[in-house]
Structures are given as structure tokens and as C-alpha cells.
Write a sequence for this structure.
């Protein structure tokens, strides 16, 4: 390992350095993928549709024929369950719980992680001092903290939000720290020659520079915040998609388990799409997103 | 009467003065001298060009005048005030355009106006005037990524002019441009400067560009930078760069500067 201190590492090192964190992704990478996707998007969507239909058909007809459908349920049963959940309105109780927990955790993670990231990038010495502690906490499986969270915050909404927050906050800290280091020093110097106040430089140069990194963090954070919310629900609660999956599992209701998982997946996909739309709106100045 | 005398004295005093300035950089193997006892003065409406080998320390001198680099010894003053941090009314241009990519052409130029303290009501008219001056009017809503290199440099020049600097420090501002665009930018700069004269300190390693633009060319040694020759360019203004380059006087100046540089490859 070339550099023992991750937070205080020099900007000149390649950003793909796997020793840093696989949760730090340099902005811009996704832009190229999108360019190829939009180039022949109809064919891509047809392939996706074909793939999903094929997999569902294999699932539908192998369950009950090749093995007992108890083990895997089948797409038709899952679809019926989903409809029933919507029809009775029960789904909203669970969706509401899980989405609010994850969303609050994500927002709190962004609101707390961003200033910490800025501070760590700004005060290099302090960053060097706290680096092993931050990385230690980051490496700690937050799931193992769940019993403590229940102890501290009860089985309330707060416990799940904090669980979600603890998963997300490091993503923002690490990405923002890295993002600040990519701020062009010539731009800052130019502002200084015009005697720009520090707050002006922060507003016009620093914050816009880290927006791509914030969006990358949000994208990774969606999945993690849902993990946090679900783990919180598994430990204690009486509603939410995680709780629904756990209860179904306890009753050996495989259809219920798969239905819960499907809804969770759909939530993540929709949230990701929302981030994509925000990205296109906010980063329209970048040639890659044009 | 006394006040009037003072004003004349102030007008006659040089805008930028460097007195015996030395600068060195800290490196792991000790201090590396970059600028060695340089003294120079730039008058109020004077266009001074610094030439010398790449990496000789010319840029460091410019950054020190702008208050971005500290000096080791000697004194720099702008408008009679000793430089300690960025002085007032300084415009700086880097070799890279350093535009803010998230702002449009208009937004980038407004940065200069805002920092000059221009009231928000007046900004729109000032932006329009500057864009017309730089022949960029159609592009006010374009983002830098949508512009060519030459256009980005014009916006960068526009941002500097918007700041209304009394002193323009230009560090190889057209160095990254192709030959033709560079010539066009040089012509635009002269046109603007000849209309409204301010002090310009311009760094380049292109000797023809230096002679074409300058009132005075200062030739620097390889690092650590020392002034080894000074040439006053007595070519008439306004200058027509196309006819100028073919004139015998122009050639005489360029070959004299080549000679001062020791006929070595200046790049």
C-alpha cells in the first residue's frame, strides 16, 4: 500500500485506487455508460425486456415441475400477492415506513457527511489524525451496532433512521473529501487575485465542484440507506418492507418474502431514476451528460 | 495646488515596482532559488513582456505580484502599496482559461463584475457591452464546454476586463492556442489595450508575440530568473500585426532578443 492515510492521500493518485474505498466512484464514469445506452436505447430496452420475460418464464414453469414451489414461489403468485397488497392498501403502511426511514437516513447522512468531508479536506492535519478512526468506524459492520441502536433509540422510527444514517454518512464523507481535492487550484487562485471573499469562493467554486460527487454519493447511498432501514426493521418493529419480509419468512410464506423483496427492488430502481433526473438537471453543463 | 502636484506625481510614478526581489521554493532537498534579485518597474499605461526559457521563474514573478506567492527578500509594490496578499485592481489570466464550467458565458463574466462591486442593475448592460467588444454576443448563454479554445480565452479575457483592473497580469495567456487563434487573440488584446491603456505584464516564450505586443521586452535567464537584457520596442501604434511581421525593424528586434537568449532553443 503506497499511502497508509486514506483521507489525507494526494489528489494525484489515481482515483480508482482500490485501497481507498470501493464506495468512492469518480464522477463522470456513469456519463459514458449513459452515452452508449442512449445511442441504441431501444435495442437495450428490448434486450432487458426479453431477459426479464425469459427469466420469469423459466421461474414460473420450473417451480412446481422441477422442484417444489414452496422453495421459490412463482412469479404469478408474487404478482397476485402484490395486487392484493395494493388492493387492501396494506402496502402503503410498509412502503411509507421503509421509504421514510431510508430517505431521512439518506438526507441526514448527506447533511452531516458533507460538512465533515469539507472539513477533512480543508484541515489536512486533523484529517491525518482522525483518519484511522474514521476508517475503523467505516470498516465496522454497522449491522452489528443494531442492538445498541435499539437500546439507544428504541424501536421507533429514529432507530431505523439512525441505522440508515450510519450506513450512508461515510459515503458522503469519503466522496466529498475526495471531491474537494479535485477542485482546480488555478480557479481558486484566480478568484483570490480578484479578492473574492472565502464565502464567495465556497459558493462559486468549491460547492459546484463537489456536486458530481454528491450525486455519486446519493446513488450509492440509496441502496445503503435501504439496507439500513431494512436491518432496523428486522431487529425490531411492526411495519415496513423489511418487517414484512421477516414476518413472511417466519411463516414460511415464500411468496410474501419474494413480494417484499420485489417492492424493495422497485423502490431502489425508482429512487435511482430520480437521482438520474436530478443529475441531468443539475449537471447539464457537463458535456458527458448532454 | 499641492493636491494637483501630488496627482501628477502619482500619475508619473510606476504602477508596479519590484526592488531586488528573490523567491525560492521549499523542496525536500532544501530551498530551490527561482527568482534571483529582480528589479523592474512598469508604468501606468505600459505593456511589458517577459520572455525567457520555460520554467525559468517568469510565472513565479507574476504570481508574486498578484500576492499568490510570497517573496523571500526584496519588496514588491503596486500603486505604491507593498504587496502582502492580492492587491486591489489586479486582473490575472492563466494559460488555461480557468472558466467556471457550471456557469454560462454571461455567468462567468458576471463573476468579474460582482467582484468589482458593480451593482446588479448595471451588470446586464456591462455584460452585453463586453460580449460585443469580444465578438461573443451570440454565445452569452453557452457553457464553456460548448465553446472552442479561442472563444473560452476570449471569455476569460472578458471576465478580467469586467473586473476593471488597473494592472493586467497575463501568464502565457494564449500559450495553449494554435498559431492562428493566438494571432487573433493578440490582435484583440492590442485593440482593447490601445483603446483603454492600462499596465500589462505579459509572460510568453514566443519572441515574435513579445515584440508584436510590447512597449518593452525583458529577457530572463534560465532558472533562477534574472533580467539579462531589456529592449524598448519603438514600433508605431496602433500596430498592424500582419504588416508588422514583415518589416525589417520587427526582424531586427526578434533577432536581437534571440541573441540575448543565447540563440538557444527558447522553449
Amino acid at each position: 500500500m503506497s499511502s497508509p492515510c486514506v483521507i489525507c492521500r494526494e489528489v494525484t493518485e489515481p482515483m480508482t485506487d482500490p485501497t481507498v474505498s470501493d464506495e468512492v466512484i469518480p464522477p463522470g464514469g456513469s456519463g459514458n455508460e449513459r452515452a452508449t445506452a442512449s445511442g441504441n436505447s431501444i435495442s437495450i430496452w428490448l434486450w432487458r425486456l426479453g431477459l426479464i420475460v425469459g427469466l420469469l418464464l423459466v421461474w414460473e414453469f420450473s417451480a412446481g415441475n422441477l422442484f417444489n414451489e414452496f422453495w421459490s414461489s412463482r412469479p404469478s403468485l408474487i404478482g397476485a400477492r402484490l395486487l392484493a397488497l395494493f388492493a387492501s392498501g396494506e402496502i402503503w403502511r410498509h412502503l411509507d415506513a421503509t421509504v421514510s426511514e431510508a430517505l431521512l437516513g439518506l438526507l441526514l447522512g448527506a447533511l452531516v457527511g458533507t460538512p465533515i468531508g469539507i472539513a477533512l479536506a480543508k484541515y489536512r492535519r486533523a484529517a491525518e489524525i482522525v483518519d484511522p478512526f474514521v476508517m475503523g468506524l467505516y470498516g465496522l459492520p454497522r449491522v452489528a451496532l443494531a442492538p445498541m441502536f435499539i437500546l439507544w433509540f428504541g424501536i421507533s422510527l429514529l432507530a431505523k433512521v439512525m441505522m440508515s444514517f450510519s450506513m450512508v454518512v461515510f459515503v458522503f464523507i469519503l466522496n466529498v473529501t475526495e471531491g474537494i481535492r479535485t477542485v482546480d487550484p488555478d480557479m481558486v487562485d484566480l478568484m483570490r487575485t480578484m479578492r473574492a471573499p472565502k464565502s464567495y469562493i465556497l459558493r462559486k467554486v468549491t460547492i459546484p465542484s463537489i456536486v458530481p460527487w454528491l450525486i455519486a454519493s446519493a446513488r450509492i447511498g440509496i441502496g445503503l440507506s435501504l439496507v439500513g432501514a431494512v436491518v432496523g426493521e428486522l431487529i425490531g418493529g411492526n411495519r415496513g418492507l423489511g418487517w414484512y419480509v421477516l414476518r413472511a419468512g417466519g411463516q414460511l410464506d415464500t411468496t410474501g418474502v419474494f413480494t417484499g423483496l420485489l417492492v424493495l427492488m422497485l423502490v431502489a430502481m425508482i429512487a435511482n431514476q430520480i437521482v438520474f433526473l436530478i443529475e441531468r438537471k443539475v449537471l447539464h453543463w457537463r458535456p458527458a451528460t448532454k | 495646488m499641492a493636491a494637483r502636484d501630488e496627482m501628477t506625481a502619482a500619475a508619473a510614478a510606476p504602477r508596479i515596482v519590484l526592488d531586488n526581489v528573490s523567491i525560492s521554493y521549499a523542496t525536500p532537498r532544501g530551498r530551490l532559488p527561482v527568482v534571483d534579485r529582480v528589479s523592474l518597474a512598469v508604468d501606468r499605461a505600459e505593456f511589458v513582456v517577459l520572455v525567457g526559457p520555460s520554467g525559468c521563474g517568469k510565472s513565479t514573478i507574476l504570481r508574486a505580484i498578484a500576492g499568490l506567492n510570497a517573496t523571500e527578500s526584496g519588496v514588491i509594490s503596486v500603486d505604491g502599496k507593498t504587496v502582502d496578499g492580492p492587491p486591489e485592481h489586479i486582473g490575472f489570466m492563466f494559460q488555461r482559461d480557468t472558466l467556471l464550467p457550471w456557469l454560462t458565458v454571461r455567468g462567468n463574466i458576471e463573476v468579474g463584475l460582482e467582484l468589482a462591486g458593480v451593482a446588479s442593475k448595471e451588470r446586464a448592460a456591462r455584460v452585453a457591452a463586453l460580449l460585443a467588444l469580444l465578438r461573443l454576443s451570440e454565445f452569452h448563454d453557452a457553457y464553456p464546454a460548448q465553446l472552442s479554445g479561442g472563444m473560452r480565452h476570449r471569455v476569460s479575457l472578458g471576465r478580467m476586463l469586467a473586473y476593471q483592473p488597473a494592472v493586467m497580469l497575463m501568464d502565457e495567456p494564449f500559450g495553449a492556442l494554435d498559431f492562428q487563434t493566438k494571432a487573433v487573440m493578440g490582435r484583440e488584446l492590442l485593440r482593447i489595450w490601445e483603446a483603454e491603456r492600462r499596465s500589462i505584464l505579459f509572460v510568453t516564450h514566443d519572441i515574435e508575440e513579445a515584440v508584436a505586443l510590447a512597449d518593452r521586452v525583458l529577457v530572463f535567464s534560465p532558472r533562477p530568473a534574472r533580467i539579462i537584457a531589456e529592449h524598448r520596442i519603438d514600433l508605431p501604434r496602433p500596430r498592424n500585426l500582419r504588416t508588422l511581421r514583415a518589416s525589417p525593424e520587427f526582424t531586427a528586434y526578434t533577432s536581437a532578443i534571440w541573441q540575448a537568449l543565447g540563440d538557444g532553443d527558447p522553449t
